[in-house]
Design a protein that fits this description.
alpha/beta, D-Maltodextrin-Binding Protein, domain 2, 2 domains, five-stranded mixed β-sheet, 40% helix, 18% strand
């Protein structure tokens, strides 16, 4: 069997199409023997791709902006070649019931916001789209995803901004009410992706992997959320999440349209991503599509 080394930045139901390449048996059926690991502070995805010890990783196109800004004239060895999600996957949850929520309800309130570079840029752009002055909110940086969740559970904040299934779990625990989707406000864009070394993308192995990924993506669009949740947890993914909550979260992402694409990163969605990051002042020079994106084969 062909050895295939996979990585990811973080785990979430949001990345189900990538996880289902493994949990759905697609890679095994295609003759791949897979190893899989998460990034840690001393084991970075970019380093592993550059030294050849990782073939493919879950990432985000925006993750390449910082390196591009440092060296805009240099060819980028790490390229994004497939789309996982074409929507932001973060939600706003309210501590109090809010059946008629409007984004203006955030004005004057305290909200715990994920300050990782992309979620924060998207949240700020959503406020912009809703014509809300950021200074009218009290935005708290409580730390990483676990610290944000713990802080809200401890009583801090009127609202919280999290990726699924964290807010859905809060709702199931009777601590919050999911009231809005950032993805609904912003619409289609190049959000999470798969990346690899540019040289590897010209190989037959890369083409074979992409074909398998498209199969898993199609499964995530066509199969029931309950079935997908069962397969993911049976494989060992996301077992810490209540199965009903995981099912609900996957169904929400299906309905949001996160996975309704053919696996390619579209130029129009790349342009929207640039607009989001330009608004937040997080890119100095705007890369072209061809500088960060490459197709397998």
């Amino acid at each position: 069997m062909t050895q295939l080394k996979l990585m990811a930045l973080r785990h979430s139901a949001f990345y189900s199409p990538y996880l289902m390449t493994m949990a759905g048996g697609h890679l095994k059926q295609a003759g791949f023997d897979v190893s899989y690991q998460l990034q840690t502070p001393d084991n970075l995805v970019r380093d592993r791709i550059l030294d050849g010890s990782c073939h493919v990783s879950q990432s985000a196109v925006a993750a390449s902006f910082a390196e591009f800004n440092r060296n805009p004239a240099d060819p980028q060895p790490v390229r994004h070649f497939a789309q996982i999600n074409s929507r932001d996957g973060f939600f706003i949850a309210s501590r109090q019931p809010c059946s008629d929520f409007n984004w203006q309800n955030l004005t004057g309130k305290t909200i715990l916001v994920d300050h990782f570079f992309q979620p924060l840029a998207m949240f700020r752009y959503a406020l912009h789209k809703q014509q809300i002055d950021e200074s009218t909110l009290t935005i708290i940086n409580a730390g990483d995803v676990k610290q944000i969740d713990n802080a809200f559970r401890a009583g801090q904040g009127d609202f919280v901004h999290q990726q699924g299934p964290a807010p859905q779990q809060l709702e199931a625990d009777g601590l919050a009410h999911v009231v809005a989707s950032v993805g609904d406000v912003i619409g289609p864009l190049a959000f999470s992706s798969l990346c690899a070394h540019h040289d590897w993308l010209s190989t037959d192995m890369a083409s074979a992997f992409f074909a398998v990924y498209q199969q898993a993506l199609q499964q995530c669009n066509q199969e029931s959320a309950q079935s997908l949740a069962h397969q993911l947890q049976a494989y060992g993914f996301l077992t810490e999440i209540d199965s009903a909550v995981l099912t609900s979260t996957i169904a929400t992402y299906q309905a949001l349209g996160c996975w309704k694409h053919q696996g390619h990163i579209e130029t129009a969605e790349f342009a929207t991503l640039l607009e989001v990051f330009t608004h937040s002042g997080l890119i100095e020079k705007r890369p072209s599509y061809e500088q960060l994106i490459a197709l397998p084969g």
